[in-house]
Amino acid sequence: MEASIEEKSKISKHISEDCVFCKIVRGEIPCHKIFEDDDFIAFLDIKPINKGHTLVVPKTHFKDLFDFPVILEEKFLNFLKKVSFAVKKAVGADGLNVAMNNGEAAGQVIFHQHTHIIPRFKDDGLKTWPDKEFSNEELVKIKAEIIKEL
Ligand code: ZN
């Protein structure tokens, strides 16, 4: 059974004392806050990829997607969409990347789950990820391995 939010919060208390996002949530570090509710806060990334680059952060310390509780998923998506629409409209973006880095190998730097809202503009010079070639046999094998884990 999944641990409750309170249990997870207790487990990660020692981590959260040094966590930069927990400090922002507690008001110990200032941020350019856009919006918050009981469970989440949205603020501008201090090293933005593009104008309006925003982070959505749960107020409880969860490490990553895999640590994130089911009970908050619907609230998270509603919060994320509300802020995403506002960011896109405010900066006149042509598109938007919503990204969550999970694990060091995926580029996660702060180990408190967070989601990037990155406004995109036509010809903004940012490249998408490169393709890799896999044979049909390899794709069939990978698909089967993933399905086995569901
Ligand atoms: Zn934290």
List the helices and strands and how they pair.
Blueprint: H1 5-11, H2 13-16, H3 20-25, E1 33-36, E2 40-44, E3 54-58, H4 73-91, E4 95-99, E5 115-120, H5 136-149
Antiparallel strand pairs: 1-2, 2-3, 3-5, 4-5
Bound molecules: zinc ion.
Zinc ion binds next to helix 3.
CATH topology: the name is: HIT family, subunit A
Low-pLDDT sequence parts: none
Number of helices: 5
The helicity comes to 25-40%
* Bound ions, cofactors and other small molecules, one mention each: zinc ion
The CATH homologous superfamily is called HIT-like
* CATH architecture heading: 2-Layer Sandwich
Kindly state the number of beta strands. Answer: 5
Number of domains: 1
Q: Which class of secondary structure composition applies to the elements?
A: alpha+beta
How would you summarize this macromolecular structure in one to three sentences?
This protein has 150 residues and is an alpha+beta fold. The protein contains five helices and five strands.
Quick tags:
alpha+beta, binds zinc ion, 5 strands, five-stranded antiparallel sheet, HIT family, subunit A, 150 residues, 5 helices, globular
Structure commentary:
The structure is a single chain. The chain is an alpha+beta fold. The chain has a single domain (5-125), classed as HIT family, subunit A (2-Layer Sandwich). The protein has helices at residues 5-11, 13-16, 20-25, 73-91, 136-149; strands at residues 33-36, 40-44, 54-58, 95-99, 115-120. It has a 5-stranded antiparallel sheet, covered by helices on one side. The mean pLDDT is 92. Bound molecules: zinc ion. Zinc ion binds next to helix 3.
